[in-house]
Amino acid sequence: MPTLGVNIDHIATIRQARRTVEPDPVAAAVLAELAGADGITAHLREDRRHIQERDVRLLRQTVRTHLNLEMAATDEMVGIALDIKPDYVTLVPEKREEVTTEGGLDIAGQIDRIGQVVDKLQSAGIPVSLFIDAELAQIEASVKVQAKFIELHTGQYAEAKDETSREQELALLSKGCEQAINAGLRVNAGHGLTYWNVYSLANLPGMEELNIGHTIVSRAALVGMERAVREMKLAMRGQL
Ligand SMILES: CC(=O)[C@@H](O)[C@H](O)COP(=O)(O)O
Ligand SMILES: NCC(=O)COP(=O)(O)O
Fold first, then answer.
1. Structural domains of the chain in order of their starting residue, each with its CATH number
2. Looking only at Cα atoms, what is the longest distance across the chain?
3. pLDDT band at 100 (very low <50, low <70, confident <90, very high)
4. Is 153 among the catalytic positions?
């Protein structure tokens, strides 16, 4: 059974709606860990639409499980990661105009750049995960740049319009997971997972961690963070 990384971006989305101080994503991370989160994920975006640098610095001091910093492969973000030293970094694509992440990072098309960033971070003792689509070319490129992990982008699985499409996307993720593990990579997954679609992902052999945020924060807005996290752990085991 994979571990659960709780992404607290959208606690900060609520705060930034008024540019105020509440709700605090740092407090949300404490509650998530008390409820059984195995890790905390935060996406420090270039446009700072939700998580702020202050949040990441405080999370570094308060997270007791492990801190996964999601970030673009920019010099600015590399500098911040080297200073704060999260437990691991996940490199993700970013477009200012996107509502949310729209796909995996293209490693194959920018091997040299991503390789430099991976080397700089891993030389400083920060393991790197690459957020990619379940495509062999991207998996092979992730091996080439010597990343420790990949995180399979589950958006197309999550957004599938019918059961047939969902099964097809799950089969692609399953094959990608197997290919990655056979290539020596550790495998996480995330994006768009919910209480209703998480079970199949959680049962892919070799899946190490699921990073889940929006659905947990959505439920937490109604029933509280601790119950939302506990229920996600149950949903991953098919017990909800
Ligand atoms: C990479 C990914 O799928 C998410 O973790 C990412 O954080 C999405 O960005 P928003 O949280 O800004 O939607
Ligand atoms: N990398 C995926 C993540 O951290 C959370 O994505 P979502 O559950 O908010 O879509």
1. 3-237 (3.20.20.70)
2. 47
3. confident
4. no
Q: CA-to-CA distance for 131 and 123, rounded, in angstroms?
A: 20
Tokens matching residue 78? 């590399």
Q: Known binder of ligand: residue 153?
A: no
Cβ atoms of 151 and 175 closer than 8 Å: no
Amino acid in position 214? H
Best mutation site among 68, 70, 129 for ligand 1 pocket (most ligand atoms within 8 Å of CB): 70
Atom of ligand 1 nearest to the CA of 190: 3
ipTM confidence: 0.95
The residue whose CB lies within 8 Å of the most ligand 2 atoms, and thus the one to mutate among 4, 8, 9, is: 9
Render pLDDT for 77-87 as a digit per residue (tens, 0 to 9). Answer: 999 999 999 99
Using the atom order of ligand 1, give the atom closest to the CA of residue 7.
5
Give residue-wise pLDDT tens across range 173-183: 999 999 999 99
Give the ligand at the shortest distance from the Cα of 49.
Answer: 1
Residue 70 a catalytic site member? yes
Nearest CA to ligand 1 atom 11: 9
Check residue 59 and give its pLDDT. 99
Residue 184: Cβ-neighbour burial (10 angstroms; 0-12, 13-18, 19+): exposed
Cis peptide preceding 23, ω within 30 of 0: yes
Question: Does the annotation place 7 within a ligand binding site?
Answer: yes
Is 57 known as a binding-site position? no
Question: Are the CB atoms for 207 and 169 separated by under 8 Å?
Answer: no
Say if CB 42 and CB 28 are below 8 A apart: no
